[in-house]
Amino acid sequence: MLNMWRISWRNIIQNKKRFFISLLGIILGTAFVTSMLIADRTTNDVFNYYEQMYVANADYWVLSDEHTYPEDDVLPLLSSSEVTETLLALDKQAFLELDGDQTVNQRAVRITGVDNQDSSLLKLPVIEGTLDNKGLVIPDSTANLLNKKVGDTIKFTNMGEAKISAIVEYTQLLVSPGDWKGAESSSFRMMAPLELLRDWTGMDNELSYVRFQTNGEGEKLFQSLQSEFQNSHTYIQPVVADDRQSNDIGGLYTFFYLIAGLSMFISGFIVFNMIYTSVMERKKEFAIMKSFGYLQSSIYKLILIEVSLLAIIGTAIGTPIGIWLGDMFMQGLLGVFEFDMVYSLNWKIPTVISVIIGLLFPVIFSLFPIYNAGKTSVLLTLKTANQTQSSTKKYITRVVLGAVLLFFIFINHPISYIAIIVSVILLFPFLLMLLKWIFMPVLKTFLGYSGNLAAQNLTQQLNRNANTASILAIGISVILLLSAVIESAPEGYEKEIKSTYGGDLRITSEAAWTDKDMTRLLSYDAVENVEPLTEATPITWETIDGMNRQFSVFAVDKDGPSLFESHEKDYLYNELAKEPSILLGERAFDEWGGNIGNYITINTPSGTQQFNVVDVVKTSNYSGYVAFMDENHLNNEFGWMNNFDMLLTLNEGYSGDQLRNPLWDDFGGHLAKVETVEDKINSTTSALTGMNELILIMLVFVVGLASIGTANTLLMNTFERTSEIGTMRALGLTKQQVKKMIIGEGLLIGVSGVIGGIALGFILLYVMSQSKLLEGFISFHIPPGSILLSFIAGVSLSLLASWISSTTASKINIISSLKEG
Amino acid sequence: MIKVRNLKKEFIQGQERTQVLKGIDLNVEEGEFVAVMGPSGSGKSTLLQLLGGLDIPTEGENLINQNNLNTMSEKERTIFRRKYIGFIFQNYQLLPTLTVEENIAFPIHADGSLTREKNKEIYELMNSVGLKELGRKRASLLSGGQQQRVAIARALVNHPTVLLADEPTGNLDRNKAEEILGLMSKFNRESNQTIIMVTHDIFAAGFANRIILFKDGVVDQLISRKDEDYAKYVANFMA
């Protein structure tokens, strides 16, 4: 009895090399999709994990716009029956007492004193030691940098000393620099018992905040405390898990899906090529089957089983590889960030999804060949040879459509990118012909007559060869684009940061700045101007969907520092001044989900209020996850009085670094942070440099996958031309010459793909750089490193791909191939 | 010029061994036009493949102008084939992407020996096979008869020692076949071209000077065309 599965299996393994290459395409495609899905989920988990760690079990917290407030202010809260657990905290700036020659700013440390280190309102991931409420809790990175372990003592200048009782993993509450260079611009953070910190500082009745958990009546308590605190410096906020101010990783997810989609597309093309050629080769077989009563559906079933077998094997091998690759990718990705983050691989759901994708995409890409196989005409097939040449009419349609779509270069719309890519695919046969004409003399010089034949053979399956080269081109162009964006982004960020930072230096204090402080600051030779900066933080608000979010609100006015970009700044300042209203940064606006003119609900220190959203603006502050309000309204209606930050503008010839030590010397008693605009630029762009390396690795992978497509196509071409190659051998072409001929074909496809890819990358980059949507953020920047790498990878991998086919071609048996002809 | 001694060829497929040639002895002199006839499976095409160096015998000697093809390496045989052997196949075996001119010049290009002189010869050859106007046309666009003319020109372009033709008229009608055979005969007479042709067709064999009749892998009879009853012998044999 006929077993369809057995017959299908025999069919797919009939040509082992082709089977292997097609399988490799599915394996790699599935592996890439799996790894990118895992990377997406795991990255999401990592940031959720740290958000949850920051929130812990706390529901609300009481803070102050005056850095600290008396503990007596919250005594009724602490004894309230609705409050189930509390955590009292006091922040204090201090300096480490070190033996080395570290500068004052490198020794700056912010100590948070808490009344219970082991509270469920804090989640401290302990690596070593215990949370005993007796000693210090420090992050792992600080322990390594200071070369300290549990039980060692840390001294603080003019305060005292304490033993380390626990070392913990990275957590937002204790974010600290990992090296001394980083310590130049950011303080260390440590946690101490509250009583100990109060002993050292004498701030016996002071608190920076109180976190608490409620027993279900929280909302009522929140509202009553809101009205209670309305005219005081203390205010209440819900504790919200939202770290979008410190993480801007939205673009990363797009990157993951772009790579996954691209890999799937290339793998699909490989499968399509394989099944299509197989169907074309077996048309006669199908005709015979049909003549003996096989139904169209039986032929569909036969091919479908073949594809399914390939998909099952490819997915079974590709998915575990993808999980491993995902792990490698996550290590590389998280290594890019400044902090030592831990992750646990979220592989289960991505694996299920990628198994489904792995099983489905080969079938989807094979639908046309399957349909074609079923439609085989018995009489026509048995009478005539296969027709593979495309008609002139089809070519004309292709060129006209391609040329029309190319005009999208001049249309400023995201859909243009897709139109341009489709246009390039359509026009690729002509590019291939042009490049063939250009490269023919070169090939002839290096490969002799074989080079000449290679160029001529290219036209025999022009569409297929062009499609293969265009796949390589799309892969290269997308990666080049990403690389160019990442390379040019620092420049864009730098421009944006400089224009919206508001000065050259931002200094943060624990106490509100006084007029005396300002006079002292202005007395520095380096300082040209000093502007107070009012930042209300943390402030919680609601999205249109009713989700709680958290950001900062900056005070702005037309005489103050420039904190955002807009073409109609004066108008906006006037609008903001008219009535309590707000401007949103782009990311905050997107997250909010409303429209300009709608009202946003914000939990202000003066209670829950609604503000009209006047406009959305570009700003580098917290990567746009921020809001702006008129200074008077922020002070009065909003209820935020104090400013803890100063923006310093420096005189020509001075740098922020020169001011660090004098500032720490003069204001060390209450200075919390000194950040130069260069620090801000460096911290924003450092991750991008690491990302670029990842992109280059992805470039090699994508080019590698596309080269498997090239190998597949060349193998198809070789098998289809068995008789022709046999004739050439019979007429005196040596094996070496045959090899050279196939290598020449592969080289032409590869070089065309690379050149086409670079050209397409340039076009897309040009269109993007002109885009009003991106407002000049992406400049027309040519990434030379990536171009060189794509050229080397494209050409060498195409050579490798063609070498595989060339060995097959050179081994063709002359006699049997002549019989086939 | 061609000396074949005790030539044997055995094919092994799985457990089965098939002896296609069982010890052939044959001499072909320069300028001879020999037709090889025999029923299907008698080994005549295998003999042609061995003479052309496309395959190597299991045993025996195969000398063309004192050159023993059996002792040559694969590469040496290929180069020898390119220089000294011309092939004509039943299904023409033209290269579809090349033009008529390029197809004819293929062996010279493969050799890297194209000169102005050779180019001139190619045009003369095209002229002599009646393809003067078709030089730049794609080979795949020609009729069967025209394609076989291209194949003849290609086989002769290097002035081969021997022209091996395997059923050259098998795919053509009588008129076209006569044209092709006439052309081969012309080159045999005028250029003293040695030709060995495998055929089923008694009419085609009539153009040869000598007929070798094959049966079960051995030479059954050698018949000269001078023999008045050769047609009767052949007809009886083939029957």
Report what the structure shows.
The complex is a heterodimer of chains A (821) and B (239). The longest helix of chain A is centred in the C-terminal third of the chain and has 44 residues, at 677-720. Chain A has 26 helices and 22 strands. In chain A, the strands form five sheets. Chain A has a six-stranded mixed β-sheet with strand order 9-4-3-11-1-12, with helices on one face. Chain A starts with a helix and ends with a helix. The model of chain A is unreliable at 385-390 (pLDDT under 50). Chain A has four domains: 1-34 and 257-386, no CATH class; 59-238, no CATH class; 427-499 and 683-821, no CATH class; 500-682, no CATH class. With 821 residues, chain A is of the alpha+beta class. Chain A is elongated and about 100 Å long. In chain A, 48% of the residues are buried. Helix content of chain A is 56%, strand content 16%. By secondary structure, chain B is an alpha/beta fold. Chain B has a single domain, classed as P-loop containing nucleotide triphosphate hydrolases (Rossmann fold). Helices cover 36% and strands 27% of the residues of chain B. Chain B contains eight helices and ten strands. Chain B has a six-stranded mixed β-sheet, with helices on both faces. In chain B, strands 2-1-4-5 form a four-stranded antiparallel β-sheet, covered by helices on one side. Chain B is globular. Chain B starts with a strand and ends with a helix. Chains A and B meet through helix 15, helix 23, helix 24 and helix 26 of A and helix 2 and helix 3 of B.
